[in-house]
Design goal:
Blueprint: H1 3-11, H2 19-23, H3 27-49, H4 54-61, H5 65-73, H6 80-90, H7 93-102
Helix pairs in contact: 3-6, 3-7, 4-5, 4-6
Length: 109
């Protein structure tokens, strides 16, 4: 958001902040969410690049197609270890490292 728009919103009484501010997340909680979202995105990218269906990935992970869909969408009910297993089933440890190193930097006060 540009500074002029931010100033207008604040002058009108609006509070401007991040999602972490809105949800009152501490640094570790926000970081964990960012990590899970980066892994979910990497899983979907790998699956599409390899022309695999969600059903096939589910078979490789030992889960269901609907669970893989939840994994890819960043559903909060999906554990981080399941995301790791999913990426490793169709990728490598380097794919995990790429996903975690490419996530956006958090802006927490």
């Amino acid at each position: 958001m540009n500074s002029a728009k931010r100033a207008r919103l604040e002058a009108a009484g609006w509070r401007v902040g991040s999602t972490a501010d809105f949800l009152d997340l501490d640094k570790q909680e926000a970081e964990l969410i960012e990590m899970k979202l980066a892994l979910a995105k990497r899983l979907q990218t790998l699956r599409r690049r390899r022309n695999l269906s969600q059903t096939r990935v589910a078979e490789l992970v030992g889960s269901s197609q609907s669970r893989v869909a939840k994994m890819e969408s960043g559903d909060p009910s999906v554990s981080i270890d399941l995301l790791f297993r999913g990426v490793l089933a169709i990728g490598s440890a380097n794919d995990l490292i790429r996903a975690l190193s490419s996530r956006k930097k958090l802006k927490l006060a």
